Each structure stands twice: as structure tokens, then as C-alpha cells.
Amino acid sequence: MSISSPPVAARETVRQPFSWRRLMRWEVLLGLVVIADFLLNTRLSPYFLSPWTLSDASFNFTERAIMALPMAFLIIAGEIDISVGSTMAMASVFMGLVAQAGFGTPLVIVTGLVVGFIAGCFNGVLVTIFRVPSIVATIGTLSLFRGIAYAIIGDGVLKAYRPDFAYLGQGYVWGPVSFELVLFAVLAVIFAIVLHTTVIGRRIYAIGANPIAARLSGIRVDSYKFWIFALLGMTAGLGSVLLTSRLGSTRPSIATGWELEVITMVILGGISIDGGQGSIVGVVLSALLIGCVTFGLSLLNVPGIVLAIVTGSLLIFVVALSSLVGYSGRRRRH
Amino acid sequence: MDRRGFIKTTAAMAGVAAIPAAFALPARAAGEIRLGLVAKSLGNGFFVAVDKGAEEAAKQIGNVKVIFTGPTSTTAEGQIEVIQSLIDQHVDAIAISANDPDALVPICKRAMARGIKVMSYDSAVSPAGRIVHLAPSSDELIGEALDKLAAASLPGGKGQIALVSATPTSTNQNAWIAVMKQHLSQYPGLDLVATTYGNDLADDSYREATALLQKYPHLKVIVSPSSVGIVASAKAVEDAKKVGQVYVTGLGLPSECAGHVMAGSIKEFAIWNPIDLGYSVTYVAVDLVKGMKGPGNSLPAGKMGKIAFNSDGIGAMAVPFTYDKSNVEQFAKVF
User: Which of B:81-110 have CB within 8 Å of A?
Assistant: First the structure.
């Protein structure tokens, strides 16, 4: 213990990228906006405040919200994956083929998860072994996976799913509480615990904040990145299982453009696109916010084009605001 | 909370709050019938015209409100979200032009389970997901219309005609041509000399039409039941300087054919009228809400007369609508 150590330690605390105080403010803000929009919707539409309406509304975003959880991990770790929509399409096509071959629902679900997992591993290998920047690698697989889906079924349709398969995307656990919503809630809690209370979570932040420092301090950076890609791929497979079940059929155009909607959810949740910052609570709140705003507007029959403008503006607004008022402190010092 | 935090909070609250506040609370009159009219996508002139017809019918019937909506891009997922919000607004009927006949079935079933009458128009939903489907026309009606168009384009109703179809395997075109040939006996003046295939490609169709003009110097009319073929054939006639000697007719889009109608190579052509389609959809939907049974029945549709639905619930609205110099420019703006 030297005399000079206390001031150094103090500066370390200030620089620490993960700070509950700083973090909670963004989440509180998002929470308030969600509540405000909820009240506003209730006032504007006589149909909004009904358990069934709210349950119906949840179907519109739960699949994307589930994928936003591992996407948050990946973006916090400083990488990105824009191929999840195509991964979903490819997984759905293989599920359709398995169902068509006469296999039951359990094997169909496993197929979806495995195909997603393999797709995720492929992205992971490109990024960690072949050193392709993640945005470039996943632009490639965005076309590749979708292309495979189209090559297999073209303009055809696969719909030999058994009736019990419909439960996953259309079923209810209790009253108006859907299976999808429960699954999302459970996964959100697990992801939050892993990210915020375990060593794994802390290392993910460290990798995103400074990959070189993380590697020098003994974290197997590539291994972490690879497994997050694989996890995201498998979750996209899960999303594909849910969406396919909800649609009751597979076409290669399934989930077109979803990758950007998932990323929007993550960024709006306060996850810094530079990596190293953000929380799962924020992602959950932003999923609720997007769900609430878009469904509220569509209950008022506001055209979809306006919805797109609103989501776009919301995102730009949030990112601009957070860098303006210095939410992302690290960025501001550049 | 410090100053920055305060600015953040207020700005975000105001921003989000201002957006939906711009839209007024939808009022609902007593006994009003509300119809959700779902397009394949918004910003498509065809569906704007459908909505126009629907509004016209709604006014005629009285106490009917049409909610015209649709996704931004032609995806099934987008349509599902739109249908979901219509269900939660407790509309009485939903009419859909489907982006995917199968993927919409679960959501349509849910709508029907909640007492909403669901029908499709233009592009069908699979039978499990709708009560009736209203097609703009039928193979029978189109085939007959092609004969009628050919006869109308022939000076004196006598002379040689030839076909420029799509591909030899295209189901629609073949069905229409079969009907056309079957009814040809009713037009003794029509002499069908050749059936060629332009593969729904502009240059192939152009080549086939040019070859026809050289091979049959007395050819009077080229009939093309393909929107690509009709334009290419008209171009071939114009390039061969045979405007006035040879007329082109068939099925085409007003926006693509308007120029050739003005140039004189096309006297008249046909395609379904989206305004009439929207009009009929509204009548049929209201009929269903009023408790009439669709499949196997004929339902009244105002000025369009009665529309017969077969036991599978499929009905055809009318013969294709004929466009000529007098109305093509007006519709060219639509689709």
C-alpha cells in the first residue's frame, strides 16, 4: 500500500463503464416514457385498455424482443449481427422440410434451434477466425441464408405442421397471457442475471469497452464473441420457431427486415453501438415502448408509413440525445 | 435529478406524447357497420382506387365506415399486425387482399372466432381463413371478353386475328384462351390464324408480334392476354408503321397502355376496375355482417348486380372493364 494509491483508485471508479447510478437514469426515463405512452393510448383509444387487446399487442413484438436479448450481448461486446432475419428464414425452411417429412413437433423445434445455432456459429467463425469485420460478415450471410431459403423452396410454401405446433406462437399459458410472452419474460430474467451479476457478464462489458485490454487481462475475447454469435443464432432459431408457429406456414420471405427492427430495439434500450454499455432492463423497456407506440398508433389506424417514421425518429432522437447529454461518457471524451 | 436529466426526461416525454396526440379519438356512431379494408401495401395506386370504390358504396348503403389500412411493405407479418389492430377495434368485417394465402389463416381464424366476418378480395386467403373470396373476374368472363374485344377492334367484325400469349405453361392465360376458343363460334367473322408465346418478356413478345405481322399480311387484330405482351405488340405495330391497319387488344394496365391508345395502335383493352372491386367488396362485406350466408349463395352488390359465390366461397365480380381513349388517361393515374 503506497500513499499515492487512494487518488488512483478514485479515478478508476469514475472511469468504470458500468455504473448503476448512471445506468438507472436511462432506464427510469424509458420507463416513464412507456407509462406516459400507455396512459396516452388509454385516453386516445377506447379499445386499448383491455387484457385481450394488450395480449394481442404483445404478439407483435415478443419474437423480436426475444432476439433483442442476445443481440444486446453482442452489441455490448462490440460486434453486430444483421443476418438474424435471414437466419430465421433459413431455420423456418428446414423446419418446414422436417415437418413435411412427417416428423412430430419436438423434432421440428429442435431443427429450428439447431439450424439457427449452426448459422450463428458460421457468423462466429467468420468474425473470430477469418477476422472479417462483423458487419461485413453478416451482410454476406444476410444474403447467403436468405438465398438458401429461396433456393430450397422458391415461391413454394411449406405448411405440413402438426396442429400442436400452433401452441408455441398462438397458445396461452393462462387467460390472456400468451406462451410467447411468458417465454420472453423468463429469458429476459435469465439474460439480465447473466449480464449483470456474473463474471461472464462483466467480461462481456470489458470486451466491448476495450477488447485489447480485455485480452491482455486474460479474457478469451474470441471465444466469448464466438459463443455470443452462436447464442444469437440459436435464439434467432427460437424466434423462427415462434414466428413459424404463429403463421402456421413457411415461405422464404418470412421475417424480411427483422434484423434492423431487432437492432433498433437494442439501441433504443440504451445499449451503446460502440459497445461496453447498456442493460437488459433497457432492452425490455424499449421493446415495450416500441410495442406500445406502434400498437397504440395502429389502433388509431395511423398508416404504417407514419409508424415507420415514428420508430425511425424515436431512434435518432434517442441516439442523438444520449450523445448530446453525455449518457455515453466514453464517446464524449473523443 | 440534475439539469441534464431533467432536459432528457422532458424532451423525451414531450416528443413521444406529441405523436399520437395529433390523431383524434375515433368516434363510433350507434349501429354503424365498420369494415376494415386491408391492402397488400399502402402507397399502391390500385388499392387507393379500391378504397375510393369502397367509400362510394359505404355512402350508398349508409351508416357504414370503411377503415382503409395496410402494411408499408407487401409482407404477411405486416398484414397480421394490421389485422390484429382491426380485431382489437372490434370492427364488424375485414376484407383482405392477401400477401400470403397461408400465413394469414391463423390470424383470420382468430378474427372469425371473435365474431368478425372475414373475406378476401383480389388476392385470396386460403378457404380456412375466410368466408368468401371475391375475385375481380373469372376465366370464363375473361375468355369471353377477349372475343368481344377482338370483334370490336375488327373493322366490320371480319378478319384474321392472332394471339400473343405469355408462356405455353401459364395456367391463367391457357384457361382464358381455352374459353376464348370455345366461344369463338359465336363470332363467325373472327378467323384465329395463330397462337404465339412471348413468355411474358418484352423482347420475346415484340419479336413474336413482328413475325406475325410479316407472316400474315392480312392480319387485322393481335390479341394479347398478357400485360407485357399487349404493350410489346402495340410497339411492334407502331414500329412496322401499321397503325390503323392492325389493332392490338387484350389485357393490360392503363398506365402502360395509355400511350399506345393515344398513338392509335390500341383501340380498346380490358382489365378489372379497382373502383368497382372496392365497391363490390363493401357490399358483400355488409351483406355478410347483416347475416347473409356467403358460399353457395348470390349476394346483392348494389349497381354491380348480384354476385354468385360457389360452394367454396369463391365469387367473380364482373367481366373485365373496357378502357379506351375516353377513360384510359384517368385510370392511368391509378394503376
Answer: 81-82, 84-85, 87-90, 100, 102-103, 105-106, 110
Cβ pair A52:B89 closer than 8 A? no
Query: How many interchain CB pairs under 8 A, A with B?
Result: 143
DSSP B222-276: EEE-SHHHHHHHHHHHHHTT-BTTBEEEEB--HHHHHHHHHHTSBSEEEE--HHH
Provide the shortest C-alpha distance from residue A37 to chain B (in Å): 7
Alpha carbon of A47: minimum distance to chain B alpha carbons (Å): 6
What is the DSSP annotation of B141-184? HHHHHHHHHHHHHSGGG-EEEEEEES-TT-HHHHHHHHHHHHTG
Q: What domain range is B112 assigned to?
A: 33-137+274-318
Is there a single domain that holds both residue B267 and residue B150?
yes
Domain annotation covers residue B2: no
Q: Please give the residue range of the domain that contains residue A289.
A: 21-41+49-325
DSSP state letters, A58-84:
HHTTHHHHHHHHHHHHHHHTT-----H
A-chain CB neighbours of B70 within 8 Å are 303-304
Closest alpha carbon to B313 in B172, B118, B143, B144:
B118
In tens, the pLDDT along B165-184 reads 888 777 778 888 989 888 88
Which CA distances in Å does A294 have to A8, A34, A256, B264, B298?
48, 12, 18, 50, 40
What is the number of structural domains in chain B? 2
pLDDT digits (tens, 9 = 90+) for B204-241: 899 999 999 999 998 989 999 888 889 999 999 999 88
Q: Is A29 on the interface with B (CB under 8 A)?
A: yes
- Residue B216, in any domain of the structure: yes
Residues of chain A numbered 139-178 and touching chain B (CB < 8 Å): 157, 159, 166, 170
The answer to whether A149 and A92 are in contact (CB under 8 A) is yes
- Low-confidence winner among A97-101, A330-334, B218-222 (lowest mean pLDDT): A330-334
Contacts of A47 in chain B (CB under 8 A): 88-90
Same domain for B289 and B251: no
Touching check for A55 and chain B: CB below 8 Å? no
What's the Cα-to-Cα distance from B265 to each of A281, B214, B221, B235, B257, rounded to whole Å?
67, 17, 10, 8, 10
d(CA B62, CA B60): 6
DSSP labels for A258-325? HHHHHHHHHHHTT--TTSS---HHHHHHHHHHHHHHHHHHHHTT--HHHHHHHHHHHHHHHHHHHHHT
Q: Answer whether residue B24 shows pLDDT above 70.
A: no
- B105 chain-A contacts, CB cut-off 8 A: 248-249
- Note the residue count of chain A: 334
Domain co-membership, B164 together with B266: yes
Q: Is residue A333 part of a domain?
A: no
Q: Enumerate long-range contacts of A111-114, CB under 8 Å, 24 or more apart.
A: A112/A237, A112/A238, A112/A240, A112/A241, A112/A244, A113/A234, A113/A237, A113/A238, A113/A241, A114/A237
Q: So what's the ipTM on this one?
A: 0.81
Residues B44, B61, B24, B94, Cα dihedral to 10°? -60
The CATH number of whichever domain residue A205 belongs to comes to: 1.10.3470
For chain A, positions 84-143, list CB contacts with chain B under 8 A: none
Cβ-contact B89, B39 below 8 angstroms = no
